[in-house]
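Posting for a labmate who doesn't have an account.
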Amino acid sequence: MKIGIKGISRATATATVALTAGAVIAGSAFASTAQAATLPNPKITAAGGYVMNNGTAKSLFAKTADTRRSTGSTTKIMTAKVVLSQKNLNLDSKVTIQKAYSDYIVSKGASSARLIVGDKVTVRQLLYGLMLPSGCDAAYALADKFGSGSTRAARVKSFIGKMNAQAKSLGLKNTHFDSFDGIGNGSNYSTPRDLTKLASSAMKSSTFRTVVKTKSTKQKVTTKSGGYRYMSWSNTNTMLSSYSGAIGIKTGSGPSAKYCLVFAATRGSKTVIGTVLASTSAANRTADMKKIMDYSFKK
């Protein structure tokens, strides 16, 4: 007896459609899983790199992530964290800019916030000067302000001690600081994993988050004579303008550090945060960051 299509029961047809749909969904899920599993590991020029999911702390990318390297001005992330960790911190308290800070910049050929001797600058403004133009003069001013001791040298030593105490409290076993700004004396180092953990902790501060995502700012400061002037600072972190969802964090460079970047971005409900150390050029540093960030958002 021949049975046509019309002879097939409604129930059988419904079951067939459901089975087919289920197979398609299962197949799609399998394909997505397989795609994630076979996502090619990005190649970067940086000697070391690390990225993690900031919400879960899950590792998303690693390349010699625990090898100690010079960190350049990414050191200033810890400088800012120590300041923001002070008890009863008044961000609007003023610091008088000393000649020692400008002399230091000149002697080191260091990056500068162009602070002017005698000006009274708030702690909040110094944080902008520290993190946007990477001002080593701002770093010196903050170390002098928040270190303890009767001499400037003692206060700076005390502040660096606080940086290392913070590193220890965060479990950063491969990190040590011997400077407040990254211009070290041979013992200023960290790793991509440690710097990423440090940055993740620093990003818990709303003040820190606000500062590091700022592309540029104009700040009104009080002059020695009691008048005022405006200081304009632009962020050295170009990814804020070039990478979708970028929210920070800090560039770094130097003869031994080469080109470094600690970065973070948010897309949807996912925030990824990471570090590249010892990239071969500023352009390659940016390219490295984009590669591993794109990869991490897909994982």
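Reply:
Got it, the structure tokens are right above this. Confidence is low (pLDDT under 50) at residues 1-34.
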